[in-house]
């Protein structure tokens, strides 16, 4: 399971769950900067349309367990070598991306394809800045609001309103992390009335203010490239 800083995840019916948590900061390994090497940004991270989960075979699970043990062993050294740790992390992300792509190709990551919902994804990515009502998208898809909501819930496990809000928040997070724009400039770019309304909206969805999110995650090296 993959998550970005301050992303809220919900686990249902997971009794006695155990596992290993691997955390890294973008100052250590920036997935945006190294996107060609790992191809994980938009696949494992920063995607509102697919579950941030990779299902492993037993063989794959053993490979990842070995890799995590190698990372833990290197990190426990008196003077761990950053280049070695980055290489392990890059391999971990690249292998995870390959497994996720295999799931998508085999259609095991979601129910049978719903063409209308795939069209909704394209429409949302195109119009999320200007169209904020589910009824707008239902009309473009020639669906009744109730049918649209039902199909969206089944396909994405989210309501259309959640999808629209999450798409806006995703773009806000990108601009907070990947640019040096002020909060006011980001609010204007996202078509909010003012920075205060934007801050209230962002905090309602993420539980933190835009400035607190930026302070926690920092500004990526990508901002200066």
From TrEMBL:
The source organism is Filimonas zeae
Q: Which residues form the HTH araC/xylS-type domain?
A: 118-216
Determine the domain of life of the protein's source: Bacteria
Gene Ontology MF terms in the entry: DNA-binding transcription factor activity; sequence-specific DNA binding
PANTHER family registered for this protein in UniProt: ARAC-FAMILY TRANSCRIPTIONAL REGULATOR, TRANSCRIPTIONAL REGULATORY PROTEIN
Quote the protein name from its UniProt record. Answer: HTH araC/xylS-type domain-containing protein
Database matches in InterPro entries: Homeodomain-like_sf (IPR009057), HTH_AraC (IPR018060)
Q: Which UniProt keywords apply?
A: DNA-binding, Transcription, Transcription regulation
Pfam families per the UniProt record, alphabetical: HTH_18
User: Which PROSITE patterns did the record assign?
Assistant: HTH_ARAC_FAMILY_2 (PS01124)
């Amino acid at each position: 399971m993959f998550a970005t800083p301050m992303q809220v995840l919900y686990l249902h019916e997971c009794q006695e769950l155990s596992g290993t948590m691997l955390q890294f900061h973008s100052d250590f390994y920036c997935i945006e900067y190294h996107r060609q090497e790992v191809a994980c940004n938009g696949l494992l991270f920063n995607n509102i349309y697919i579950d941030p989960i990779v299902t492993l075979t037993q063989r794959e699970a053993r490979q990842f367990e070995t890799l995590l043990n190698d990372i833990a062993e290197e990190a426990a050294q008196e003077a761990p070598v950053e280049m070695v740790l980055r290489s392990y992390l890059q391999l971990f992300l690249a292998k995870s991306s390959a497994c996720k792509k295999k799931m998508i190709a085999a259609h095991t990551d979601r129910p049978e394809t719903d063409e209308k919902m795939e069209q909704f994804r394209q429409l949302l990515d195109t119009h999320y800045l200007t169209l904020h009502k589910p009824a707008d998208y239902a009309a473009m898809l020639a669906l009744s609001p109730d049918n649209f909501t039902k199909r969206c819930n089944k396909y994405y496990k989210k309501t259309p309103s959640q999808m629209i809000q999450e798409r806006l928040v995703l773009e806000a997070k990108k601009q907070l992390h990947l640019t040096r724009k002020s909060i006011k400039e980001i609010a204007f770019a996202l078509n909010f009335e003012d920075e205060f309304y934007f801050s209230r909206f962002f905090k309602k969805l993420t539980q933190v203010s835009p400035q607190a999110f930026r302070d926690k995650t920092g500004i990526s090296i990508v901002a200066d490239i």
